[in-house]
Amino acid sequence: MSNILEIKRLTVEYKVPEGVIKALDKIDLYVKKGEILAIVGESGSGKTTLAHSIARLLPKNARIVEGSIIFHTRKGPVDLTKISEEEMRKIRGSMIGMVFQDPMTYLNPVMKISDQIIEGLISHKKISKKDAEAKTLDLLKKLRIPNPEYVAKSYPHQLSGGMKQRVIIAMAMINQPDLLIADEPTSALDVTVQAEILELFKELRKEYGVTIIIITHDLGVAVRIADRIVIMYAGKIMEIGDVREVFKQPLHPYTQGLLGSILSISENVRKGFILKGAPPDIFNPTRGCKFHPRCPFVMRDICINEDPPLFHVGNERYVACWLYRGVSS
Ligand SMILES: Nc1ncnc2c1ncn2[C@@H]1O[C@H](COP(=O)(O)OP(=O)(O)O)[C@@H](O)[C@H]1O
Ligand SMILES: [Mg+2]
């Protein structure tokens, strides 16, 4: 399977009055065409910064210090960190769709749903209003929205949270993008609605072959939907692997800790301990491995002094931990 996205050494900083925050630190990651990739990490680990870097929606105080983001379009590869804003605008919307946590930041409260979806369509393709309306209705039906005619004519406040999130997904999918990035798309929803939305993502992949990056702080969400999983901590990738394999045998102590914290609901998980200690201080980055102050297996002095690279330890399995030095595939 070929890759749709290749991220190399991506490093992003934010400037704040108190100093500089390194939100992403030399991220290396590929995304395969047609897969569902989950990016998992605690709040503040850099997940949204990664999503915003790909979509080039970083705020003004952010800076890409290093790295490249190669996106394979149908016409060939482009580096998303290098192209002009105009080229990026074309890619965003037509080739990369986005869904974010809070639908209301993306929905205009005084505009009918159908008009909002159509707006996205017309700005990218020449199409009559009538055809656009038909296409919108068709998409709402595909997204299993009950009473699509009614929803199309509604204003956002008339819809439930789950329905609003479906509308946002419709907006992201209207131009049939190759890549869909969903940042905590179900975090604001209750569990049953969350399950429905996750099903919907799977159906979209089946129906359109769209590649999906789903970002979540919830391992349960990842295991339900993803093919591969990426574990992030303090702006670094700690582990990458097939989602079932990572659950069966988490390699990184941090992953083991995360799984340990959901042990009670997943009895199949054998390894695991409860994470202790505080998340990292953003202004005083830890030397060496970012996780070493909380790691029960910390080895003096290497973990304290040297940041481990992402070791390739098996078929599509990577882990950034000195315990696995010398274990290569
Ligand atoms: N606009 C911003 N300005 C300054 N710092 C930010 C900004 N956005 C995020 N950060 C900081 O960058 C780090 C990563 O944040 P973020 O990417 O939002 O993580 P996550 O999505 O995993 O919760 C955090 O330390 C956060 O405080
Ligand atoms: Mg976030």
List the helices and strands and how they pair.
Blueprint: E1 3-16, E2 19-32, E3 36-40, H1 47-55, E4 62-73, E5 76-79, H2 85-94, E6 96-99, H3 113-122, H4 129-142, H5 148-153, H6 161-173, E7 179-183, H7 191-208, E8 211-216, H8 219-225, E9 228-233, E10 236-242, H9 243-248, H10 253-260, H11 302-305, E11 311-314, E12 317-319
Parallel strand pairs: 3-8, 3-9, 6-7, 7-8
Antiparallel strand pairs: 1-2, 1-4, 4-5, 9-10, 10-12, 11-12
Helix pairs in contact: 3-4, 3-6
How much of the polypeptide forms β-strand, as a percent range? 25-35%
Elements, N to C (H/E): EEEHEEHEHHHHEHEHEEHHHEE
Oligomeric state of this protein: single chain
How large, in whole angstroms, is the Cα Rg? 21 Å
Present as ligands are: adenosine-5'-diphosphate, magnesium ion
From the N-terminal CA to the C-terminal CA, the straight-line distance is 20 Å
Overall shape = globular
* Number of H- or I-type helical stretches: 11
* Poorly predicted runs: none
Could you tell me the mean pLDDT? 90
The residue fraction in helices comes out at: 25-40%
Summary keywords:
four-stranded antiparallel sheet; 329 residues; eight-stranded mixed sheet; 11 helices; binds magnesium ion; 32% helix; alpha/beta
How would you explain this protein's 3D organization?
This protein is of the alpha/beta class and 329 residues long. It contains 11 helices and 12 strands. The strands form 2 sheets. It has an 8-stranded mixed β-sheet with strand order 6-7-8-3-9-10-12-11, sandwiched between helices. Helix 3 (113-122) crosses helix 4 and helix 3 packs parallel to helix 6 (161-173). The radius of gyration is 21 Å and the shape is globular.
